[in-house]
Every structure is written in C-alpha cells, then in structure tokens.
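Key result, reporting period 2: structure in, sequence out.
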C-alpha cells in the first residue's frame, strides 16, 4: 500500500472499511476502527475549529484515537496544534491559557467527508526538556510529512504487516510520528492502548501476526524481567527505540528474539530524526548512520544538524560526536554533562559507566546537586550480590571510583533504588534525579 501524504487524507485514498486502529473494549476484546470512522471523527474536529475560530488549539487527548482524529482534523483546518508535555490538570490549564480553543475528547460527524487541507497547519510540541523548563517546539505539517516519508523510505519495506504497538506516549514527537502519523500515512493499523505495563504488553502482542513495537530504552531493558518473552507465541517483527542510547547488552538480548534487532533512532524534538543504528555486537554496529536528508558538522561545541526537517537554520545540539568510516559517526556524550568541581573536569557519563562496571550494580545515574558547595549525587539500582547494608555499598563504590577518579569526582550523596525515575517517555531528567536527594518534608507534630 502506497504512502498517503498527510495533506491528502481528504482525498479518499483508503476504502471505507480499511482498518486504521485497534481499540481495547472492556469485555469485548479488540475493536477495529475503520477509515470511515476516522474521516467522520476528523471532520468533526475540523468543523469545530472552523465554527469556534482561533489559530492555536490545544489538543489534550489521553486516548490515542481521539488524539489521532483531532490532530488530523485540526491540521487540515490549518490550525496550530499545541501538544502538552503531559495531561496533568495544571499542565493542561497553563497551555489552555495560551490557546484559542481546547480539544480534550473526540466526536463524530456521521456521513461527513474530510475537508480539503487549509495551508498553515503546524504542531507545537511542548516538553519539559532535560532541565525541567517547559518550552514549545513548532513543526510544520510539511516537516512532519518529510519525516514520515524518510521513515518509510528507510524502514517501511522490512516491516511486518501486524499493527503498530507502542509503550511510549503518543503526544511527544517520537510517539506521535511512530505510533500515529507514520502508520496513518502508510495504512498500517495502530493500537490505541499503550503497552507500557506487563499486562498491556501481553495483550498488545496477542496477535496472530508479528507487530511493530515502538518503545524506549528504559522499557526494553525492563520488559524481559517483567514478562516471560518465551511464553509469547508471536514476538514483534520489528522493534524501534528512541529517547536515549540502548545499552549494548539489552540490544543483543532483543536481537536473540527479534532477527532484525532493535532499530534505534537518534534525534530530538528540534531536529526530528537524525540517524539510526541496529547494534549486533560487530565492530561498527554501535555507530550511527545519518538519515539521507541530513547534513552533519562536527565541532568542539557540539554536533550541528542541517535538514529541511530541522528548519531553515542549522541546529547545534549539546552532543559530542566524531565522524567514523562509511559516513557514520560516534556519539561521545553530552556537553552539558561535563562540569568542573574544584577545578577538576568531570564527565558524568564516565562516572556512570564506572559505577555500572561494578558486578552488582544494575544501573547508575549521577547528578550535580545545588547548594553552597557543589557536589554530586549518585542514584544506584543494586543487583544480585550487592552488600546488604547501605553503608557497605557506599564504601565499596567509593573505593572502586577512587581507583580511577580524583576526590572531587566522588559522589557525596547516595540513593539506592529499585529502579531509576524514568518518565513516561523513558527519559531520565536532571530534575527527576535531583528530586531524589531533596530532604523528606517534615511531619507535622501530633496534637
């Protein structure tokens, strides 16, 4: 089935009974939502935007079907669609004050056809970013179409014909592209229910045909310990990951079950997709291959990305990178994750790698902590063989680090956790880590 540009959704290129999505209905199992229902729901959203007016519309739909139909209708109506970082009431209320209208649930216009596209449709992705400061990143409809075309060109031919299943939220750029827009344009059905928890994951994979799994590194590292993959009759036929680099051991573990391995996407909300890789343990497989419409420049002040999808000006990222053979490149870490303490330059990723080299450390993250005297905090997920007492763990880890790092680089504060505080996108933010080291609120005295 050919790729349908997003601006041509109104031209009836799909049959009325074409499956667009699968929705879990309590007590009834999966319900197939067809193209006919999609066009009627999207027409309702476009009609509402025209009747109520305004250029900027907040789309705050936790349901993926309402989100997909609302997004299509508002874009075809030429609106700027504002997508929140999350659906918490305070977040939605703050963005609603910046918008002319708000869509929080879907509707339908029976018998209606999708309108022809009105120029000017844009999507504004709001994200907390790595520092926790909210910001909006606008993407034009043309840029989103170009992204979908690039994904289909690179990966479309090898995908299985099962539905697209996601563990990541649909309202951030990665989930929006991979769970909604790309399947919609390519004619592949998407599953509305997210598959982030074990029960939903098992239901999502209960298809006779292999699915396409859209996930994050955090989910891919945890799922094998939460779900017995050997008991699932049909494993995913393709797996995508984004939001951060996937650990090589996790990549190889999934490759043993999924022949093509995990396709990792490197990119950002500002630039869209930049590059991809599929680690298989061979030399060079950890390097990244740029998308064919991306031009990169390597410098001491970060990686510079140029493409139509990134915008009219080059975008500099806070990532160190160096070129490799065959047009590929290596990522060396974040520029904003190198700091100076007592005149000593300290690489936080290097510290984390050193901690994770300890046999009984499953995961580790290091964060600078504010205060009159700068210091580092380390959050550690212990594995089998860890000393029982926290004091013994700290002593062992500090002795291990002291063999390699100067005194200022040694974390002064420690937290031992069952898992690191990843958010719904599978990201680990500076704010979430720093919050672990905040003092517990004082209890009120009993009367």
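The corresponding designed sequence is given below.
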């Amino acid at each position: 089935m050919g790729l349908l540009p997003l601006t041509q959704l109104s031209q009836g290129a799909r049959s009325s009974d074409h499956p667009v999505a699968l929705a879990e209905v309590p007590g009834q199992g999966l319900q197939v939502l067809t193209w006919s229902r999609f066009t009627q729901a999207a027409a309702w959203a476009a009609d509402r935007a025209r009747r109520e007016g305004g250029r900027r519309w907040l789309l705050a739909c936790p349901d993926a079907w309402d989100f997909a139909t609302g997004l299509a209708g508002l874009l075809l109506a030429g609106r700027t669609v504002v997508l929140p970082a999350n659906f918490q009431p305070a977040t939605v209320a703050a963005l609603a004050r910046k918008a002319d209208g708000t869509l929080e649930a879907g509707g339908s216009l029976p018998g209606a056809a999708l309108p022809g596209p009105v120029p000017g449709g844009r999507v504004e992705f709001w994200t907390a970013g790595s520092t926790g400061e909210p910001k909006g990143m606008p993407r034009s409809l043309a840029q989103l179409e170009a992204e979908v075309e690039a994904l289909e060109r690179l990966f479309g031919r090898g995908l299985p014909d099962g539905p697209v299943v996601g563990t990541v939220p649909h309202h951030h750029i990665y989930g929006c592209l991979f769970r909604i827009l790309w399947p919609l344009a390519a004619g592949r059905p998407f599953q509305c229910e997210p598959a982030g928890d074990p029960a939903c994951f098992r239901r999502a994979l209960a298809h006779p045909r292999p699915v396409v799994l859209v996930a994050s590194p955090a989910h891919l590292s945890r799922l094998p310990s939460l779900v017995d993959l050997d008991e699932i009759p049909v494993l995913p036929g393709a797996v995508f990951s984004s939001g951060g680099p996937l650990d090589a051991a996790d990549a190889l573990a999934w490759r043993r079950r999924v022949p093509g391995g995990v396709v990792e996407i490197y990119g950002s909300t500002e630039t869209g997709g930049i590059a991809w890789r599929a680690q298989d343990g061979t030399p060079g497989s950890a390097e990244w291959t740029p998308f064919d419409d991306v031009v990169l420049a390597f410098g001491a002040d970060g990686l510079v990305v140029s493409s139509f999808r990134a915008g009219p000006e080059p975008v500099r990222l806070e990532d160190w990178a160096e070129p490799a053979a065959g047009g590929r490149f290596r990522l060396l870490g974040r520029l904003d994750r190198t700091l100076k303490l007592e005149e000593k330059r300290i690489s936080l990723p290097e510290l984390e790698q050193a901690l994770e080299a300890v046999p009984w450390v499953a995961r580790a993250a290091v964060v600078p902590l504010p205060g009159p005297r700068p210091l580092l905090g380390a959050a550690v997920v212990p594995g089998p063989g860890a000393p029982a007492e926290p004091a013994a763990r700290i002593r062992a880890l500090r002795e291990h680090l002291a063999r390699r790092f100067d005194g200022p680089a040694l974390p002064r504060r420690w937290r031992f956790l069952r898992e690191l505080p990843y958010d719904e996108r599978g990201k680990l933010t500076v704010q979430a880590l720093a919050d672990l080291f905040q003092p517990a609120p004082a209890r009120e005295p009993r009367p």
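DSSP finds eleven helices and 24 strands in the chain. The two ends are 71 Å apart (CA to CA). This case is discussed further under Risks and Mitigation.
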